[in-house]
Prior knowledge:
Blueprint: E1 27-31, E2 40-49, E3 52-60, E4 69-75, E5 81-83, E6 91-99, E7 102-108, E8 116-120, E9 125-128, E10 137-146, E11 149-158, E12 164-172, E13 177-179, E14 190-198, E15 201-207, E16 214-219, E17 224-227, E18 239-249, E19 252-260, E20 268-275, E21 280-283, E22 294-298, E23 301-305, E24 310-313, E25 318-321, E26 329-334, E27 340-346, E28 353-360
Antiparallel strand pairs: 1-28, 2-3, 3-4, 4-5, 6-7, 7-8, 8-9, 10-11, 11-12, 12-13, 14-15, 15-16, 16-17, 18-19, 19-20, 20-21, 22-23, 23-24, 24-25, 26-27, 27-28
Amino acid sequence: MKRTGTILAVVAAMAVGTAGPATARDTWTGEPFPTRPGLASSISTASSGGGATWAFGSHTRPSAPTSITAQAFRRDESGGWAETPVPNIGNIVASAVTGPGNAWAVSSFAKVSAGGTVHWDGKAWTQVPLEVPGAPRISPSDVTAIGAEVWTIGKAYLDGNDPKQFSFAKRWNGNGWQDIPLPPAANDLYFTSVDGAAPDDIWLAGTTQRPSRIVAMHWDGTRWTQTPVPPVDVPATDYLTVHDVAAYSPADVWISATHASYDNPNQRSPVLMHWDGTAWTRQPAPVPTGGLGKLVHAEGALWNLGTGALLRYDGTSWRPVDGPPEGRLGTGTELPDGRLLGIGSHGAADRPQPFAAVHDR
């Protein structure tokens, strides 16, 4: 779900402004995507790298799921999609791809499925053990490729009479997941996103429990440091959700989040945070209401696949953009040719089916 290709140009003054409505120049080309009639099928993450593009998600029985089945689809050069067998690790939530022979996907824990990690070696998907000592129930929340390194983060739990929870960050060392210990205080935080501009410049982003606030932690290659994020003025009962963090340079990092009302979950407002190399500041979004979503770098710009609007940042300002006619986008990635691939869901509420569309530059 992370960035690929060229890095967004660093601008000296990170001015973020509002803009008028999207222009008619934004058009999309749909791509046939496999469906599962009679089931609820969704795609939650897509990634591209080294000429390879994948999309992952899950399917289940509508209305009353008793199981969640993982699914993986690979895109060919002509824009065709084909399913590839993947170990059933349940609800796949994040992915990272570096080439035709190296891809990763992780799943979070759910009531009807366990969390896990799987790896593609160019021939087949295999499940890869991820262990946290003293906490057998794992729930990875994100995975990303940073240069030649692959990182995953999440939570691990010990159930029983004396329950405990642990936050973890792990790096693939070629043979297994190596723990990169987080400070003890991180166990009380909920990091949901990881990204970095370099192996010694990595960011975690997430939230606290109520009262909800956004938190960020930085890895400099030696140690973790929590950096203050401006508080968002929300009632104590409301909650914040961090959808993504995107790091392009030591002075250009973004957090995409949403404030939702406890009393009315459909009442949402966007939250954008930016790191300029010195401090985090909140930046205005060009739409006053609606949730934000995942961040994707494509076509030399940064995109936000929000529930309220599709947004594009060109290095100077965020602007709303026309999305595909099939519906809103939930995930996306930059294709090998630089264009934005977006994937969303449409159809009956209890039997949604995925669609794919490519932005025409």
